[in-house]
Amino acid sequence: MTVRYPRPLRPGDRIGVTSPSSGVPEELRGRLDVAVHDLEALGYEVVVGRCMDGSTHISAPAAERAAELTEMLTDPAIRAVIPPWGGETAIDLMPLLDFEEIGRAEPTWLVGWSDISVLTTPLTLLTGVATVHGNNLMDTPYRTPEGLTSWLDIVTAAQGEPFRQTPPGRHRSGGWDDWAAHPGIRDLTLDAEGTWTRLDGTGDVDAEGRLIGGCIEILANLTGTPYLDTSRFAGSEPLLVYVEACEDNAFEICRNLHGMRLAGFFDRAAAVLVGRTHAPDSRTLTQHEAVLDALGPLGVPVIADVECGHVPPYLPLVNGARGRVVHTAARSEIVQTLA
C-alpha cells in the first residue's frame, strides 16, 4: 500500500469542522469561536458542520456523524477536517463509514487524537491516506512551544521536506485550563520538567520507519479487526509505532498493550514511542512498568514520556510519514518526512 498525502493547505482553502465523537457544550462555545476565528485570520474558510451538539457525550446520532464526516472527507472543496476534540464513543462510526469511498476521493487531511484515533489510524491503514495525530481545534489557539510544531505547520508543509521536533523539556503537571472563564487563553501552563525516557535499557537509539499509532484505550478496542491490521501497511517497511495512555490505570494499560502485541500490531516495530501520561499507577505496577511488561518482549527500543499524548504540550505525528527517532544523552528528536 502506497502512502498518499493530501496536498498542502493554502490560504483560501476550506477547513471542515465536525464532531465525530463529542460536541461542544454551550459554555465552551467561546473557545470554539476563538479557534475558528484564528483559522479565518490565516486566510482559511471554515465550515462548521451540523454535528456539534455538546449536551451529551455524542454530537449527533452515529449515522449523522458518519454521514457528515464522509461528506467532508470526500468534498473536493474541503482540504482538511478537524474536530473540536475527542470524546468517548466514536467507535460506533466504524461499520457506517465506507473507507473504499473515502479512499477513492482526493486525499483530505484528517486531524485529531484521543478518541479520534479510532478514525485516523484505520483511515491510514485501510486507504493509505496520511492523517495527523495532533492537537485538536480547541487546542489550536495555544502558542506552540519552541522545538515543537503545530498541526497547521504540518498540513501546510511542502511534501518531501523533513521537519524536526525536539522535546521542550517542560510539560504540564496536571489539570486543564478553564476555557469557559478564559476562552482566549493562548499560553500553555508548562510547570514541570522532564524529557524522554528509554525504558528497555540504556544506550543510544537511532531508528527509522513509517509512523503509525494512537491512544491505547481507543485502539485496543480494534484489536483483531481489519481496522488495526498493520500487516499490509507500507509494504514491508519497518514501523515507528507510537502509543499513549489517557486515563486507564497501569493494569488496564498492561493488558491492552499485551493484547495489541499478541494481535500483531507491533510486529514490524523498529522502535516504540510512548506518550507522557498522568494516568494512575497501580499498587504494584507503574505506567512505565506496564509498558515494559507488555512490549519488552519485542526486543526493540521503547522510549517513554514523548509529547504525543494527553499531557500538554503536543508533538503532532503523521500516520504514514517516514520517521526517524534519535535519543541519546546529548539530544532527543524525531524527524518526519511526508514522502
Estimated share of beta-strand residues: 15-25%
Return the string of H and E elements.
EHEHEHEHEHEEEEEHEHEHEEEE
Question: What does the average pLDDT come to?
Answer: 97
Low-confidence stretches: none
First CA to last CA: what distance?
13 Å
Quickly count the helices.
8
Helix content: 10-25%
The total count of strands amounts to 16
Query: What's the main sheet like?
Result: 8 strands, mixed
Instruction: Give the radius of gyration.
Output: 19 Å
What strand order characterises the main sheet? 6-16-15-10-11-12-13-9
Shape: globular
SSE-based structural type: alpha/beta
Task: Characterise the protein shown here.
By secondary structure, the protein is an alpha/beta fold. The protein has eight helices and 16 strands.
Could you provide a short overview of the structure?
By secondary structure, this protein is an alpha/beta fold. Helix content is 22%, strand content 21%.
What characteristics describe this protein?
single chain, 339 residues, alpha/beta, 8-stranded mixed beta sheet, 8 helices, 21% strand
Helices and strands, with pairings:
Blueprint (H helix, E strand, L loop, with lengths): L13 E4 L11 H13 L3 E4 L13 H13 L3 E5 L16 H6 L4 E2 L6 H11 L3 E3 L17 H5 L7 E3 L4 E2 L20 E2 L3 E2 L6 E11 H4 L19 E6 L5 H13 L6 E7 L11 H9 L6 E5 L10 E3 L2 E6 L4 E6 L2
Parallel strand pairs: 1-2, 1-3, 3-4, 10-11, 11-12, 12-13
Antiparallel strand pairs: 5-14, 6-16, 7-8, 9-13, 10-15, 15-16
Helix pairs in contact: 7-8
